[in-house]
């Protein structure tokens, strides 16, 4: 039997504010020893009152606007009650029925087409303390408690594991462009829970959904969704019954395991937070925030295509991170007009390969955009050949030296002197009688071989176009 997959995603992301959501403690919780960034408010002492962090509201409005949400006239906070040791107060201040942003969307390029995924809401809450489990006891670190946490909930409209991954990558990218969060998945500042259910193809009936937690990378989300869809389909085929439950992704085994049967909203006994009055979201302020939004990935990608004439495919990769897109534009600006395609090819080719193999993020690369463009100028004006440039780039990458320095040190300048090249060509022809005979008998690939030998003999320094021309002349061809 064929099934359709229905996925809805909930993303929690910590906001990059300096202080916590409701007190003046530093929100940089990981940089301090446990339980040092705390105060009576985030320790939930009796009689204390929370104060709303304005920057957190601003960041949430920015995100909601970037996700095409409606910003209501006012918003309020609610208490979400549950008994759990990571909550100091015994409740979490969250938002229930008046989130900061409602009914937005984002566009995902997936499976070869564009798809709009609707966003139900963007709301603000506070992070919990961190529990560290040590065998038969647990430790608690309250530093993280009260750090602003923004939640972005999608409609259950995602229809494949790949689409779920692409949605997350796009959302992650938008948050980084906005600068509202580090969105670092490994450090837990960008966490994703997924609700997944299946239904028989062409049916409207939804089967009970399963919530999957503990996915710490985009790949994990993809794998967990694949696994879960298969598990649910198999269970049904074997005559089993699906129940609403929460499962955890186990990276090592590539499976999900039952954590608990799902709580329903009623269990949280939400009610308006009596210690905070509702917030009016001033229209002028909202419009100021809207006007100040940076260019977002999709718009930037489209501009790259029209402004620089590069392909949509390349533009997509270049704008996948703000740092890469900035690097590209920085580099293009250093060069004469019309070289964007060349910059893009080098960035996405050899440069990205070096970043990947050394596991380096572009922000930490030792080659600055200025140095890369200087190197490309040397290629463009014929000082060094393409193959030489690859070696130069690698050395620049490892040592942080400038291209001109490496070229001088290693005497790598391209040989564009016809007489000098002809001399080498003659030597190669004299030493490769077999290839010459092949060429004379009409085998064109013999020419490529001889050209290759000349390039090898000059350690890649000879101008390839000139070599080809001279070899052809010397062999008496056209
Ligand atoms: Zn505090």
Number of strands: 15
What is the radius of gyration? Answer: 29 Å
Unreliable stretches: none
Number of helices: 15
Q: How much helical structure, as a percent, in the residues?
A: 25-40%
Q: Please provide the ordered H/E string of secondary-structure elements.
A: EHEEEEEEEEHEEHEEEEHHHHHHHHHHHH
Please characterize this protein's 3D structure.
By secondary structure, the chain is α+β, with helices and mostly antiparallel strands. The protein folds into three domains: 3-288, no CATH class; 295-409, no CATH class; 418-474, Arc Repressor Mutant, subunit A (Orthogonal Bundle). Helix content is 40%, strand content 20%. The chain has helices at 54-66, 161-178, 218-237, 283-291, 297-308, 312-318, 322-334, 340-357, 369-380, 386-399, 403-410, 418-431, 433-440, 445-457, 464-474; strands at 3-14, 74-75, 78-81, 91-94, 101-110, 113-126, 130-134, 137-141, 148-154, 190-200, 210-215, 245-250, 255-261, 271-272, 279-280. The N and C termini lie far apart (64 Å). Bound molecules: zinc ion. The site of zinc ion has 8 residues, from loops.
